[in-house]
């Protein structure tokens, strides 16, 4: 018997949350990294928010996740990027 490695049922909407220093292109960097593994990012799927002091930016990209492997690949690529401080 196979044990399911995740509690998610795929496909599903999944918010990928990423934080880094607030630079003019940080949100586009995050979207480009996520898009490599989920090319069909829909309109309205990206939300950004600045920290109270404006030094950090949080970017949420909601994707239609197809598998745990896809999510693992997204997080692996995001955490390998030096400008990404946190990926949730």
The rounded Rg comes to 14 Å
End-to-end distance, in Å? 30 Å
Low-confidence segments, ≥5 residues, pLDDT <50? none
List the helices and strands in order: EHEEHE
What amount of the residues lies in strands?
A: 25-35%
In order across it, which strands form the biggest sheet?
2-3-1-4
Query: What is the overall pLDDT average?
Result: 93
Main β sheet profile:
4 strands, antiparallel
Q: Shape, please?
A: globular
Based on DSSP secondary structure assignment, what is the total number of beta strands? 4
Account of the protein in words:
Helix content is 26%, strand content 33%. It contains two helices and four strands. A four-stranded antiparallel β-sheet has the order 2-3-1-4, covered by helices on one side. The N and C termini lie far apart (30 Å).
Short description:
This protein is α+β, with helices and mostly antiparallel strands and 88 residues long. The chain is 26% helix and 33% strand.
Labels describing this entry:
88 residues; alpha+beta; globular
Q: Secondary-structure blueprint of this entry?
A:
Elements: E1 12-21, H1 26-35, E2 46-50, E3 56-65, H2 68-80, E4 84-87
Antiparallel strand pairs: 1-3, 1-4, 2-3
């Amino acid at each position: 018997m196979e044990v399911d490695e995740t509690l998610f049922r795929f496909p599903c909407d999944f918010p990928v949350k990423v934080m880094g220093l607030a630079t003019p292109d940080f949100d586009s960097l995050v979207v480009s990294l996520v898009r490599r593994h989920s090319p069909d990012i829909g309109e309205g799927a990206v939300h950004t928010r600045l920290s109270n002091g404006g030094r950090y930016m949080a970017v949420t990209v909601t994707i239609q996740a197809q598998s745990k492997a896809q999510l693992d690949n997204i997080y692996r690529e995001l955490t390998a990027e030096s400008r990404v401080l946190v990926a949730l």
